[in-house]
Specification:
The structure is a homodimer.
Chain A: H1 2-11, E1 19-22, E2 25-28, E3 33-35, E4 39-43, E5 46-51, E6 62-65, E7 70-73, E8 75-80, H2 89-96, E9 101-106, H3 109-115, H4 117-127, E10 133-139, H5 156-162, E11 168-174, H6 177-181, H7 185-196, E12 200-203, H8 211-217, E13 222-225, H9 229-237, E14 241-244, H10 250-259, E15 266-268, H11 275-281, H12 284-293, H13 298-305, H14 307-312, E16 330-335, E17 340-346, E18 349-353, E19 356-357, E20 395-399, E21 414-420, E22 423-424, E23 432-438, E24 445-451, E25 458-461, E26 470-474, H15 477-489, E27 493-498, E28 501-507, H16 519-535, H17 545-551, E29 561-564, E30 567-570, E31 576-577
Helix pairs in contact in A: 3-4, 5-7, 9-10, 12-13
């Protein structure tokens, strides 16, 4: 508490401030007013005094002129996944601090599925001395469902351990609705540990009544929301704090404005954003502009991104306000509505100016415990991907899935496939290809047939929500093996192969899903991958086939039928489905 | 989590609700709207579902008709002292549930100063199976200041222990400004324990800048507020959650309404209220009516007493809203603005109707550990109260204090007093009387002269904020001894004596400050005490001399000079002052 002693001493005029901010206007997010004549005195990392701070200025005090600026709290993202940027936390901070995000709540289940609690710890380790505050929402989804095997297991005991770690703020993103509503032991043990520790349970997605009631009845406090006004009001009325993803929720924002609601139970978040997209459109600043476009007044919009998110996470004594006792995380904004951020401060230090990083954020080598996370004991061969015919006919029945299948009725997706030498064959003329999910810890693989396109080659990726096993889609078994083996060689990443040749790749050696290489290099590699993939004709996977490949195997939401390293599963019933019969 | 499993099952229509509430209007405090057609399904103690709940009604389901009523959350008092009612927690619940207070945050330092952590534990023990939720704010004030000795000691280690107990919600009422701003070890260790446990620090009173800055810089989150609009806005702007005591803060309420603030950082509380006054005016309902008189709209007023207080204490997943997952603590209100409470429910059970308690709240014998808390080893005698003259003159100088003294300048209160047989004498002609604070744990006493009136007799009380040692004011030493000895005999309480005869008394055997006797009996005893005291002519102690006697020895606020069991102290400097010289 020594740092707080010094704050008291500054406030009472016993010692001088390290820095003061003068001449700016002041956005008081507690009452929702903009005020003049509120200056700010800083000691160490925190704010000591606001208002009339003249008596804190000594000869050593740095005076920062905020003439023409409105001083606001730094932005707090209430629900975020650093992994989605493909960048390590420190590289990610370099990218994102200029957009004003001084604190974020990291979902953590991606890395937890790669590395167990080590994956969670990694964020906390990286955050040390980092001028961006990373709070962790402990993974509730390790494994995401009982239908797949991942690199970690977080049950009640593991959760209780991690909830003691500093900056673990709660339980993240409870999303396995089948098992949530099915009272599944592991998931509920984690939730119980969270409530016992006095921490929050974060939910996922946009359930509607009566699922919205069941969702809140579990003890969950919040969700990151995409949806319409009716869905938003139904969740709010049920006591759910809404972390609105504005660009997917314009109708909800407009509707809440029109309903004239009290906004205290609403915040704003980004959730997932690839680094290259952040560079194009921004982060919370972008979401906030959308909220204002939908009629939300600017002051409330800033509250959503600051005090409201901080209060939701029960951290309003540290972040979300420019006020005594809080970290001196501040933005100088020259235009409130356009969110023109002139300067960004974290812990009293300027870290970005006019969109450019000014902080010196070192990139030390990634710790050994996050490297070498792909552990396939010996290289795979084409034979590993063969599917034996279950009988001696020329054809077999097969469940041929489209990219996402929102039903558990097999009839519409059952077709026949040819058999050759006792093995079931693709039918590329009908865009029917083979997909395998290879357990990245050497525990085997599941194979089935999907209508996803690709006329040649194979694409393998160790980014695979949320298990982060290795998915591979291939027009021939040999390229599938080559692609997976190369993913393993480069410690995880994305690899494009044709005729045995590596056409493009990116190594993501941190947990197999992130890299600490510079952003430009990462973007170039991803661009090359996307270009080469397009040449393989992935006709059924939409505009971003590699991104689709990372998302279509989610088991947490009851789509219907999905492939895991254990085979095909009906996620609604937990029943295993044969690939062919 | 089994109870939450059942809630999920009700929400999803798998099993029926225990009870449903239908036909009422619904106060949605999350968005601040009143809605129709929102019915409520209850399972066990909690709410399972709201909205359309028809599918939860089975033949066993109790249907509660709320026709003509608005259903609101039960009131949550964010800062309260049960002890001020003089009633035990269970007796207090009998009195207060009809006023709609279903949850309260108990300050706990009174009992902690009587009994240490046992005094804190008592509230939690009494709350078991009680249909009023008692959350404890752990005493920061045991002892209140280093200038006095009490029956307990809560430092960092003790705080860390108690913060693990269920329903200990934070650190209560940090009020020793001298030692707060002086970085005193014990107090700051307790605060550190609170922050480390992820709990709130509650402040006290109404500091103004720059003390308001220093106050918030310590990590404190809130204060129970009495003051004007400028003081309110200054604290809010500094990120302080305001628990407004409405009847002492009309200008602040009016001013905040006029300023058009966002009210999310404002709640409402009662703090202290004698039982007989509660019966006359009410509790939060009374404070809320004042807020509405000052222009606050009714819906916001209810938010202050429900969701806002619950969110401040980080307990919005349990209390403060009528929503799935929360305790079914509800009020049926027939007139929102007049706060006509027709029915009160706690945990789904009706506990009061039309102002009458309907719950069966048993009063088991007070546990042994809160009894016999006055431990004076042998009866005192008149000699114990004699003040020796420091020299052989006929008169001495004496600091003769008025009831409250807001200065540390001795000159205005220095007078001469006669000496007889080597002992300094009172001067009743000038209303100068003797006061002693007797350490209730047998560790001696402090004596000095005060200008408080009383022409005869003595009044002793073991209710003495915040040490709860025994204060005795007396016109003669013999009556003083008799009064204190009787207080000890009856295990604490208030005793009025004249000429060696007990004129009136009340026994407060629970910690020496509370009783579990019925309210009517308590009020009758207090009435008798007040009547007999008036006959003794306490000319200088205001309208309520016995109440004044319990408050004028507070050491926590830097009044100036005050008497403790260790003698006279300057509370601003910590310096000890001789009573006579």
């Amino acid at each position: 508490m020594k740092d707080r002693h010094l704050l008291v001493d500054v406030a009472l005029g016993r010692i001088n401030a390290d820095k003061v901010v003068v001449n700016g206007e002041f956005l008081d997010v507690a009452t929702g007013r903009i005020r003049k004549g509120v200056n700010i005195a800083i000691k160490g990392e925190r704010i000591a005094k606001i208002g009339n701070i003249d008596d804190t200025i000594g000869s050593e005090t740095e005076v920062i002129d905020a003439e023409g600026m409105i001083v606001t709290p730094g932005f707090v993202d209430s629900h975020y996944h650093i992994e989605s940027s493909r960048l390590s936390p420190r590289r990610h901070a370099q990218l994102t601090l200029p957009y004003g995000t001084t604190s974020l709540f990291e979902g953590s289940h991606e890395m937890a599925n790669c590395l167990g609690l080590d994956g969670v710890k990694y964020f906390l380790d990286e955050a040390k001395d980092l001028p961006q505050r990373i709070y962790v929402a402990l993974s509730s989804a390790t494994p995401p469902t009982p239908f797949e095997r991942t690199g970690g297991y977080i049950g009640g005991a593991e959760a209780r351990e991690a909830l003691q770690w500093e900056n673990v703020a709660g339980i993240g993103e409870i999303m396995d609705f089948t098992n949530l509503f099915g009272h599944e032991d592991r998931l509920w043990s984690v939730m119980e540990a969270g409530l016992e520790a006095g921490k929050l349970l974060e939910g996922h997605a946009t359930p509607e009544p009566p699922e919205a009631d069941a969702f809140m009845a579990t003890g969950i406090s919040s969700t990151h929301f995409t949806g319409n006004r009716e869905q938003a009001l139904a969740l709010l009325e049920r006591g759910c704090f809404l972390e609105i993803k504005a660009r997917d929720s314009r109708d909800a924002l407009r509707g809440l404005v029109e309903a004239g609601i009290d906004w205290q139970m609403v915040g704003i978040c980004v959730d997932d954003r690839p680094a290259e997209l952040t560079r194009k459109i921004g982060l919370l600043d972008y979401e906030m502009k959308i909220a204002m476009e939908e009629g939300l007044d600017p002051v409330t919009t800033y509250q959503l991104a600051t005090i409201n998110n901080a209060r939701h996470w029960h951290l309003e004594h540290d972040i979300g306000l420019v006020a005594p006792g809080r970290y001196a995380d501040m933005l100088f904004v020259s235009d409130l509505e356009k969110i023109k951020i002139d300067k960004v401060f974290t812990g009293g230090e300027m870290v970005a100016e006019k969109g450019k990083l000014t902080a010196n954020i070192s990139i030390p080598p990634a710790p050994a415990y996050v490297r070498h996370s792909i552990k396939i004991p010996k290289p795979l061969t084409a034979e590993d991907f063969q599917v034996e015919a279950p009988h001696y006919d020329d054809t077999v029945n097969a469940a041929v899935l489209p990219a996402r299948y929102f039903s558990d009725d097999l009839a519409p997706i059952t077709t026949t496939l040819p058999v050759k030498n006792g093995f079931v064959q693709r039918d590329l003329s009908r865009d029917i290809n083979k997909i395998a999910i290879v357990n990245r810890h050497g525990k085997g693989l599941g194979v089935s047939f999907w209508k996803v396109g690709y006329q040649r080659g194979a694409v393998a990726s160790s980014v695979l929500h949320d298990s982060h096993n290795i998915s591979v889609i291939g027009a021939n078994d040999s390229d599938m093996a080559t692609a997976v083996n190369r993913v393993a060689e480069i410690e995880g990443g994305i690899v494009v192969v044709n005729n045995g040749k590596i056409l493009a790749e990116i190594s993501l050696p941190i947990g197999g899903i992130m890299t600490d290489r510079p952003l430009d290099e990462v973007v170039a590699a991803l661009d090359k991958i996307n270009m080469e993939v397009d040449k393989l004709e992935p006709s059924e996977l939409g505009e971003h086939p590699v991104d689709s490949q990372t998302f279509i195997f989610l088991t947490c939401f009851p789509w219907g039928i999905v492939l895991t390293d254990l085979g095909l599963f009906n996620t609604r019933t937990g029943e295993k489905i044969p690939a062919v019969w």
